Amino acid sequence: MVIYRKYRPQKFSDLSGQENIVKILKGAIKRKNIGHAYLFSGPRGVGKTTVARILSKAVNCENLSEDFEPCGKCGSCLEIASGTSLDFTEIDAASNRGIDEIRQLREGVGFSPAKNLYKVIILDEAHMLTKEAFNAFLKTLEEPPERTIFILATTEIYKLPATIISRCQRFDFSRIPMDKIVSRLENIVKQEGISAEKQALEMIAANCGGCLRDTESFLEQILLISPKNITLADVQRTLGLPDQKAIHELAEEILRGNTARAIQFVSNLLDEGKDLSIFVLSLISYFRGILMLSINDNLSEIIAQNYTEEDIIRARNLSRQSSKNIFIFIMRKLMEARDKMKFSDFPHVYLEMAIVECSTRNELTREEKSGKNTDKSDSETNNVSDDSKINQNQNAGNNANNDAYCSEISQKQWSAILTDIKKKNHSIHAFLSSCVPVKILNNDLLILVKHKFHRERLNTQQNKILIESVIDSIMGKKLNIRCLLKEELAQMGIEVNDNPVEKTKEENSVESKDILSEALEMFGGSVVS
Length: 529
Ligand SMILES: [Zn+2]
Fold this sequence. Notes:
Elements: H1 3-6, H2 19-30, E1 37-41, H3 48-60, H4 75-82, E2 88-92, H5 99-109, E3 119-124, H6 131-142, E4 148-154, H7 162-165, E5 169-172, H8 178-192, E6 195-196, H9 198-206, H10 212-225, E7 229-230, H11 232-239, H12 244-256, H13 259-271, H14 276-295, H15 300-303, H16 309-319, H17 324-342, H18 347-359, H19 361-382, H20 386-394, H21 396-399, H22 411-424, H23 426-432, E8 436-441, E9 444-448, H24 452-458, H25 461-475, E10 480-484, H26 486-491, H27 505-523
Parallel strand pairs: 1-4, 1-5, 2-3, 3-4, 6-7, 9-10
Antiparallel strand pairs: 8-9
Helix pairs in contact: 3-4, 5-6, 8-9, 9-11, 12-13, 12-14, 12-16, 12-18, 13-18, 14-16, 14-17, 17-18, 22-23, 22-25, 23-27
The protein binds zinc ion.
């Protein structure tokens, strides 16, 4: 059984995709305005010759349905389907590419259709014809024989002479969308009485790049291995692909800066005899997905071709754990490694080097950053306006912890946020002033909190809304606050200064007063001073 033959669409409505083309062709059948030459171009396996066959049947069918579908049962339909029709010829131009074949063809078309209304000649892989054959064929197109339809199919339209293209009605076939391929596969396995994990079918579709024929022949390969039940693991094994979950785990280790674990991972792959070049490609592709998701969640549509829904959810989580620059850095390093791996006797060494570079990337940026910061503060002290000097003096207490401040929020802004919150709610201010803004990731403002208790207080719905609205009014930006403990930030690959903002004496006393009033609020008492 060859699945793609068994399930080859016999009617226009059986097709997956190419709806526009079908609409136009049906319109032509309806108006009885059939062209004498059609050119079907597009990638392989997207239905060009299938549509050509259905069209051949439709124009000749004795019992055409109301919506212009061939009946599949009349003499003409059956003869075309079985290849016995005298009026239907399918030529593979790849093996009949010379002038003699085309001459024979021309002589053949000299006769009117034997039985049918139309004689149909499908010329598959039309770009393979020789120059002389094209010239001979052009003469046929210039004086088209009556009631004869030529259908040229090609994957490489640019190889066709313009003179040929201009004499045909051209239809550009597109790749078939992933969801259509998946639902078609679902249909086939159902009819075959096989159970299949949806993710497995998605993975098959994802790896065939919108080519239905490949997808179906791949499904057949899988069925040889697991004839009753298709799992994701079967598909991955057959494709020689690393388990996507493993890819995710390695990406996670790299982002978290767990160099040793990441390297161990590669070593295990080597032990298992995995192909590292395929593996590194999958890893690059995964980081591409993470990058896309970090730019905009809507971009998940772009990567949906390659991933299952579950993969996308996991990648989305990782996309929130670091910045675009880091993802780009990692992709670049992995791509460099891959180029070098091709020509090396020790490909794994390049991959290991790249992984070390990527997973220590956070350290590098910290070093670079702290280096820059020192320079900056030097120049600031030497070359600043009086105004900012005053500012600096005012914030002298905080300056010691400059590192802990995130680059996206200035100290001035953070102070303004605290002041504003203080006006609205003393106890939130008390908690928040012991916290440090660390980083803006997408739309999340990561805030370092000292104690779980602080976080719980800040994280109540009401308090969050208040804090976020103040941040919005000061920064002009809607941010979600995420309060995290030091360890949690470290898990995301973000190292922060241990002792957040040192307070000036005055601030300290304000804070302690605020905590006191918070405590009083909680336990109901009054200050006796
Ligand atoms: Zn029919």
